[in-house]
Design brief:
membrane; sodium; three-stranded antiparallel sheet; 5% strand; 2 domains; mainly alpha
Length: 434
């Protein structure tokens, strides 16, 4: 039978979708015109698998590292005001839109744009952007594996000075360096700076003092391969393949560990961090509000890019994950849970990190210690390209396909009308924020 409001024809539980959609000011085409059956597709074993997969996909360094840094930089607790404005007016509505598109069409990031074919370039462009991001994001995993294996040695290579890669400025952890802070470095920092510089899939290292970052004097000095990192990089890709090679049948089971275990580690680190001397000083640094910062436009820009980046919108991942939902899954409820977990992780991650930074400041005699964070802000995959795709997605669905028609489609799936605020955000507010 055919639902007259949505134009979706159903037979034996399978929904048929028109390949081409007419402009929103015309009647929905009858289900007999130019229809195709959506391809057979695996589905999540249960709703928990979908939620955990989305949390595991969205929550990452953007939450644990970049959010605390931006919060400190942009007024402490006052930064939460622009952050939640962008989350409620931009991040959450975009999550609703993308997961809904995937669930409605039961297809991936490119094919979903059969709903509005003129905008198929959005899917292609965001897929290319995701592929490029994966190339350097796997490097973080590579570094983590290297540190993991290094922990099994007789001594930690970053725990003390005296290693071949250390400089004369290295000073052991615990030494008070307040009077010579600009002349000394930590052994852990030197170890980090001395290991890896990845260009595409090749890990490069400097001949002498580089041990983790392989810093050279420039691109003209690429250095040689750091074979231990080549090995961890290869292992990282093998592990990724093993997690996804059977689709949601394997991914849905893996996420029970890969998503929950990091939270267990965060809780352990938080308990340890707040019991250290100086931890409260770090937390005050993190949350003490400075409302005068809200008058600076850069604070609002940072909040917007942080929300869109940490919610992982406009890069196709949420579309793909949503496409494995059952057609009548209440994805709006699930996305609300995911958004709450995402933002809560950002806040909690900041408590963990700054409690430890407060301790670092206490034992070293250097106020703050926030300089450690500045390198991480450089690696944030946010910017004008991401905002451009968000604008295009909202425009394609709200202005060309029609926000009313899309709202009817969502109502067909979840069984209740779309909130007026969400429709307003899809049409006006989110494009304005982007």
């Amino acid at each position: 039978m055919t639902n007259k409001e949505t134009g979706i024809h159903q037979e034996n539980g399978t929904h048929l979708i028109p390949d081409a959609m007419v402009p929103p000011n015309k009647e929905t085409p009858p289900a007999t015109e130019n229809l195709r059956i959506t391809p057979e597709r695996d589905v999540w074993g249960n709703g928990m698998e979908f939620v955990l997969a989305c949390v595991g996909f969205a929550v990452g360094l953007g939450n644990i590292w970049r959010f605390p840094y931006l919060c400190y930089k942009n007024g402490g607790g006052a930064f939460l005001i622009p952050y939640f404005v962008y989350a409620i007016g931009g991040g959450i509505p975009m999550m609703f839109l993308e997961v809904g598109l995937g669930q409605f069409m039961s297809q991936g990031n490119i094919s979903i744009w059969n709903i509005c074919p003129i905008f198929k370039g959005i899917g292609i462009g965001s897929t290319v952007m995701t592929a490029m991001a994966n190339i350097y994001y796997i490097v973080v995993f590579c570094w983590a594996l290297h540190y993991f294996f290094a922990c099994f040695g007789s001594s930690l290579p970053w725990a003390s000075c005296g290693n071949p890669w250390n400089t004369v400025h290295c000073l052991d952890i615990g030494s008070n360096r307040s009077e010579i802070a600009d002349k000394v470095t930590d052994p852990a920092v030197e170890y980090w700076e001395l290991m890896d510089n990845l260009v595409l899939f090749f890990v490069l290292a400097r001949k002498s003092r580089n041990r983790v970052l392989g810093v050279t004097n420039g691109l003209e000095e690429v250095g040689g391969l750091q074979w231990e990192l080549v090995g961890t990089l290869f292992l990282a890709w093998i592990m990724v393949y093993c997690c996804i090679f059977k689709g949601v049948r394997s991914t849905g089971k893996v996420v029970y560990f890969t998503t929950t275990f990091p939270y267990l580690m965060l809780i352990v680190l938080f308990i340890r961090g707040v019991t250290l001397p100086g931890a409260m000083d770090g937390l005050i640094f993190y949350l003490k509000p400075d409302f005068t910062k809200l008058l600076q436009s850069q604070v609002w820009i940072d909040a917007g890019t942080q929300v869109f980046f940490s919610y992982c919108v406009a890069i196709g991942g949420l579309v793909a994950l949503g496409s494995y939902n059952e057609y009548h899954t209440d994805y709006v409820r699930d996305c609300t849970i995911i958004a709450i977990i995402n933002s809560s992780t950002s806040l909690f991650g900041g408590l963990v990190i700054f409690s430890v930074l407060g301790y670092m400041s206490f034992v070293s005699g250097i106020p703050g210690g926030i300089y450690v964070f500045q390198i991480f802000d450089y690696y944030a995959a946010s910017g004008m390209v991401l905002l451009f795709f968000i604008l295009c997605e909202c425009g394609a669905i709200s202005w060309f396909y029609g926000v009313t028609r899309w709202s009817n489609n969502v109502e067909e799936m979840i069984g209740r009308p779309v909130n007026l605020w969400i429709k307003f955000c899809w049409t006006f507010f989110t494009p304005f924020l982007s």
